[in-house]
Amino acid sequence: MTTDTVSTQQRKKIHPHKFTLWVAIASIIMMFAGLTSAYIVKGSLPGWVEITIPRLFYYSTVVMLISSITMQMGVKAFRERSMRMYRNMVTLTVVLGTVFIVLQVIAFRQLYAAGVIMEGSGAGQFLYIIFGLHALHVIGGLIVLIVLFLKAFSARVRNYNPIPVEVAATYWHFVDLLWVYLFIFFLIKI
After folding, report:
1. Taking the CB of residue 107, how many other CB atoms lie within 10 A of it?
2. Which of 13, 56, 72, 176 has fewest C-beta within 10 Å?
3. Do residues 48 and 122 lie in contact, with contact meaning Cβ atoms separated by under 8 Å?
């Protein structure tokens, strides 16, 4: 086997961190598919109570979409070793992710104030569970982004390995797409 053949085979293999991420994404998709399927089944039963989606969910959708753009711009800047731009984009993505979570909390408080509670039979209980689980996944992504942020501003770290940045970006885009799916699902089903 020549050196070129070995090098080509190594390039074709997926990095273990990326593989692990895709397995995790597949399991998260299955979880949310099960929850949205349960929503559809329960929605046809008697006693189902519909709700109105708070306006803040629309705003949080825009914030999440913008954060996905800033994250991708950060990946591009990292690959080009434009560290100043990378730092700015990671910072902006962390801020936008935090704004998303804050908007979610305010929207859930509005739902609670409007009398939408977890108890009973209706869309409200599913909304709390499904959107709450999504928010937990966003918080997990934010933790990773904060680690990238700290490393980007650390004087000691000078590692230009793109894998952690690419893995974080893939996950962030995933939670963005998941939010868009869930938001559209609830708009259609509620």
Report:
1. 20
2. 13
3. yes
Look at residue 10 and tell me if it is in a domain.
Answer: no
Euclidean distance between CA atoms 129 and 77, whole angstroms = 36
Candidates 150, 143, 151; CA nearest to 172 is 143
Q: Which residue range(s) make up the domain with 99?
A: 15-189
Mean pLDDT split into 10-residue runs, the chain, 190 residues:
55 82 92 92 79 89 97 95 93 96 93 76 80 93 92 74 91 96 86
- What does pTM read for this prediction? 0.85
CA 23 to chain centre: 15
8 located within any domain: no
> How far is residue 168's CA from residue 161's CA, in Å, rounded to a whole number?
13
Q: Which runs of consecutive H residues, i.e. helices, occur in 13-55?
A: 16-43
CATH number at residue 155: 1.20.120.80
